[in-house]
Structure formats: C-alpha cells, structure tokens
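User: Some background: our group keeps a shared notebook of sequences we're curious about, and every so often someone picks one and asks for a predicted structure to add to the entry. Today it's my turn. The entry only has the sequence so far, pasted here. Could you supply the structure so I can complete it?
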Amino acid sequence: MIYELRAYRIIPGKQSEYLRINEAIGRPTRGQKYGTLEGSWTTEIGTLNQFVTLWSYPDLVERERLRAELQKNEVWSRDYTPRILPILLAMENKILSAQLPLKAPTEGNHIYELRTYRTQVGKTAEWLGHFKAIMPVREKYSRNVGVWQTEIAQLNEVVHLWAYRDLNDRAAVRAKVVQDLEWQVFLGKATPLLVEMHSTVLVPAPASPMQ
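Assistant: Of course. Here's the predicted structure to add to the notebook entry:
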C-alpha cells in the first residue's frame, strides 16, 4: 500500500467555488474507483487557500494505471478539469509509505493537524524509531491518525496526522503532553535529529470520508 498526499493551492476568494465543483462533480465522478480517498481538507492554519487530499493505492503501478483510466473518463475531462484548473495556482504531491497503520476516526467531527518533520540526512529511521516507541505515551492524550515517510518528493521527511475535537482541545492536549516526563525524554533524543518542522491545521471538506 502506498499513499499520495496532494495539495492544491487555490486563487484567494475561489475556495468555496472549488469545493462546490468538487462536491457536485469531482467526488461523484471519481468516487473510490480510481484510488481510495482517505480524507480531504481545507487549511485553517498554515498555508491558506489550500485543498489537501490523501489517497491510497495498492502500489505505484496501480496508481499509474488508475490515473490513466481517470483521464479517459469523459465527465472528468470534459466537465470537471476545465472548471477547476483556472482557479488553481499550484499543485504539489508526495508519495508516502505508512510507518504505522492508518486509523481514521469513525465518530464525530474533528479538526486535523498535519505535521511534517525533516530530519538530518540519514537520520529518518532513527527518528522514526524513537517516535514509534513513544507513540503509546503520546496517544494517551490524543488520536494519531497516521505516520508516513516520504518516498518521492522531499526526502528525509516524516509526515504525521492527528485528530482533535477542536482547536481548544488541541491546545489543552499539547499543554499536557509537554509535561509528560516520558515525552520529555523522547524530545531530548529525537529533537536534535530534526532540521525543520511544519504544522498545518485542516478542516474536513464536505465530501471527505474523514470528518
């Protein structure tokens, strides 16, 4: 199984139009036939005017085949793509390998925090080892949705996704976590291995499987 994280940067003021077209044409047309949509979000904090999607595929060969089939879909190529492209400024994607099983929330509504950590060259496996070991401690405070390593795009990078009830819940959880003695030990070992850290707060799109 591989995952693809895609980010579409939208012209300011056009996000509602993008979501409307996506919900009315894009999602019904694509469904889960051309890859499995795990979640889709808009950005609330971080780089704004973005639409972020997480897809899964059996492997890279099947991803290539399914995307080629999608381009043959007349509704997609005739009714969807021509309406979407003029309101986009940029597109980015990353191919990810799962380091922990994906655990999507099944009840209630959430906000999500997407965090990307770039390690020193050659230190990703060491950082991941520390992170996986501390995960039972960290998950006492909030739900981890997934942990991935970037295989294509920015290398030496770990991507992880967290779910919270709301921004107040996130703030309260993080205040508790930093007081945890085991977490402090983890930070002492793992933080020196990092070069960059980025955080984006995401709100589920109306048609997202994850809410």
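Suggested note for the entry: The first strand starts at residue 2 and ends at 10. The chain is about 35% helix and 35% strand.
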